[in-house]
Amino acid sequence: MPPLSVRTAQEGAPPMADEVLTIKEVAALLKLAEKTVYAMANAGEIPAFKIRGQWRFRHRRHPRPS
């Protein structure tokens, strides 16, 4: 079986298609405080899931129509 490949965002770089983001990255993307993003995820207001107790968010980039 081939090794798992994990792509990560670099500081200042736009997220890649179907990337999994952290609370810090989502807060920066939405221009919200990290506590606000945490509270929204905990309340189910934004789609999120936990990995080993840490919130993660799926980010999908859709092509813009020309």
- What is the 3D form? globular
What is the number of E strands? 3
End-to-end separation in angstroms reads: 40 Å
Largest sheet: 3 strands, antiparallel
Whole-number mean pLDDT? 81
**Strand proportion:** 15-25%
User: SS-based structural class?
Assistant: alpha+beta
The secondary-structure element order is: EHHEE
- Estimated radius of gyration: 13 Å
Main sheet: which strands, in order across?
1-3-2
Number of helices: 2
Helix content estimate: 25-40%
Stretches where pLDDT is under 50 for at least 5 consecutive residues are none
If you had to describe this structure to a student in words, what would you say it looks like?
With 66 residues, this protein is of the alpha+beta class. The chain has a domain at 19-59. The protein has two helices and three strands, in the order βααββ. It has helices at residues 23-30, 34-42, and strands at 19-21, 49-51, 54-59. Strands 1-3-2 form a three-stranded antiparallel beta sheet. It starts with 18 loop residues before the first strand and ends in a 7-residue tail after the last strand. The model has no long low-confidence stretch (mean pLDDT 81).
